[in-house]
Amino acid sequence: MPNSLENILDRLRTSNSIEEGERNELLQELSLLQTEMEETDFKLKRIQKDKSIAVKILEASIGDLERNQFELKQLNQQLSRQKEELKLQKQIIEGNSKTLQKSLEKLELSYNELEQFSYIASHDLKSPLRTISSFAQLLKNRYYQVLDGEARDFIDFIVGGVSQMNDVINGLLQYSRIEHDNKIMAYCDLNEVLEIVKANLKMEIEENHAEIQSVSLPLIYCNKIAIIQLFQNLIHNAIKFKSDLPPVIKLSYQYLEAEHQWEFRVADNGVGISQEFQKKAFLPFQRLSTKRTPGLGIGLAISFKVVKIHNGHIRYESNAESGTTFIFTIAAPEQS
Amino acid sequence: MTSKSYHCTSIPQLKQVLSEANTPVFQPTLAIVFCTMAFDLEKIRNCFVEHQIALAGCSTAGEIINDSLYEKSIAILLMDIDPAAFQINLTTYQDKPMLQAAKEMGAFVGNCFPNPGVLLMSSGLRIDAQQLVEGINASITKSIPIYGGLAGDDLAMVETYAFTQDGVTKKGAAVLVFDTEKIAITGLALSGWKPIGGVNIITKAAGNEVLEINNEPAYDVFVRYFGLSDADTKHDQLIGIQTNYPFQLIREDGNTILRSPLLIHKDTKSISLTASVSEGDRFRFSTSPGFEVIDQTVEGFQALKSAAPEADALVLFSCKGRHGAFGPLLKNEIKGIYKYWEKPLIGFLSYGEIANLGADSIEFHNETCAAVILKER
């Protein structure tokens, strides 16, 4: 409170020049005035303080918001940059993917064309071959008495050559049709397949005193005809390329959980195959033995293709002492 | 029920008041006393024990008697009331967790009368008032009137006390329970503080102590937001700042509740509130309301007048923060409330208020003025 008002009050209290009644009234009013001044003084100070603090709070709030905004902006910029980088990577991957897709399409086209060509070529070659064989045979039959020994040999060579060529064409035809003819998949009992193979190779098994040992085989999802071809080729090879001992062929299998694949083993006690032939053993028309054995050398190539259409792999382990084991896998339905 | 209010400025004066109080027509059985820390509380307690008057009260940051506000005084409300109509307990938090002590307090209240009503004065500068109300809420199975306040110590921020005829405690509460079938208790609490600035998040806290706000030390945030200088912060207490600018906590249901900062700790860069908070709690700072709030508050108590037109006595719990915000104008609020009933009124300026504001459970508040009407049925 201003000094002057307090002084006035003091003087008033002690003054004798004012009547008591009037003095009391004045004291009362001045007292009220004093209270009013105190209140006004307080109000002003508080408003000042409130204003100052409100400004500081708002400034600090705005400062915090601006800082947050700046951090958000920086984060946004960082995210934008990352987004652009990812976009670019996506474009590259899409580009590569398109290129790969085109290559695959080209490859498939080439393959289809090759298959078609093989089929048409071998199919179309069979007719003229039949003609050559028929007329060569006719020549032999009609003019056998007239022809000399050398001529007869020549005709035999022609007929033999035609027959061989026919076999090659049939083999090629069979090889080229593997994927085309064996698209139908179903569950198939391999024990039944083995019985069919044994029946098909009955003569070879009996003549060579071959023994086929097998565990109880599983039910697998496959193309039955192709699988019969596969087992037949491998078992037939095992009999053909026997050692001095009667052929013993053992069949076994296991299920590879992690890969979702069946793994089969066809093991023989034959003469073995040199490891140098690993790369070309499964190519068509390859002879892997110096022995003169019947066959075109197309069986393993067909076996390779059969395994391939079943999303599997095939290889062999072999040596002269213990024979050869063919190991191949067939994918279970999830991957087929 | 007859009641009388007294203002004393010394213990001898108190003794004289008590000696003269007892007459053939007025034989006080119960006293509610709010008292400055300037006096020896034990001596004051003994005065009432000697006169065999049951006692409940606490230390203050200012005393209210009838229509006036005082400091360094003793405010006394003597009541000539049926002793069977009330019970008093001095609960201590000394040897047990706050929540457990509060639950026991709630259990005591529930066991006193089928329909109790409570006046609660709690001491303890660093108690977790949130746990106090949670504990009581947990023990009470129905909605009952509970009003009270946290004791003060004239803003010394050292220690506060509650007392009954049985003792004085710096870590406990004086619990005065009325049988509301005999004594009606009606109350109302009003505030008026408004939020300012953006929403902040308490990112680190331990009980009452706020360690970090928006991942920044709480002390640094406070200094920055309030522009405090070294001179301002050289003390631990935030005198002049804290009670005027409480945290306005935003509840999940969108409602807000005020929590005043009470102490700052420069060493740990933290701030102690009057009640606990949790990490993740969102809040805004508040500004003191305009002076029109005084008139609005007085007008607001018209509702209490309508609910309880008659009174035998009034008790007022008014936050010390309101004194800081309104200064000498606070007495206008007190005068305005007193004028409704013009009956014996005592109250004190507290460090926090307890009221159930019409809800089913009690809440702890700051910056609130709570008036309680006592009327014998």
Characterization of the model:
The complex is a heterodimer of chains A (336) and B (377). Among the domains of chain A are: 119-179; 183-331, 2-Layer Sandwich (Heat Shock Protein 90). In chain A, 64% of the residues lie in helices and 13% in strands. Chain A is built from 7 helices and 7 strands, in the order αααβααββαββαββ. In chain A, a hairpin with a 3-residue loop joins β6 and β7 (323-331). In chain A, α2 runs antiparallel to α3. Chain B is built from 10 helices and 26 strands. In chain B, α3 crosses α4 and α7 packs parallel to α10 (330-341). By secondary structure, chain B is an alpha+beta fold. Chain B is globular, with a radius of gyration of 20 Å. In chain B, 25% of the residues lie in helices and 38% in strands. In chain B, β19 (261-265) and β20 form a beta hairpin. The longest helix of chain B is centred in the N-terminal third of the chain and has 15 residues, at 98-112. In chain B, the strands form 4 sheets. In chain B, strands 14, 15, 16, 17, 18, 19, 20 and 21 form an 8-stranded antiparallel β-sheet that branches. A 6-stranded mixed β-sheet of chain B has the order 1-6-2-3-10-11, covered by helices on one side. Chain B has helices at 11-21, 41-50, 98-112, 129-139, 218-226, 230-233, 292-300, 302-307, 320-326, 330-341, and strands spanning 2-8, 30-35, 54-59, 63-65, 68-70, 74-80, 86-92, 116-122, 146-150, 162-164, 167-169, 172-179, 183-190, 194-206, 209-213, 216-217, 247-250, 256-259, 261-265, 270-273, 282-287, 313-319, 345-350, 353-355, 363-365, 369-376. Chain B has 2 domains: 2-190 and 292-376, no CATH class; 194-287, no CATH class. Classes of the chains: A alpha+beta (336), B alpha+beta (377). Chain A binds chain B through residues 35, 38-39, 42-43, 46, 50, 52-54, 56-58, 60-61, 64-65, and chain B through 196-198, 214, 221, 224-227, 245, 285, 287-288, 291, 325, 327-329.
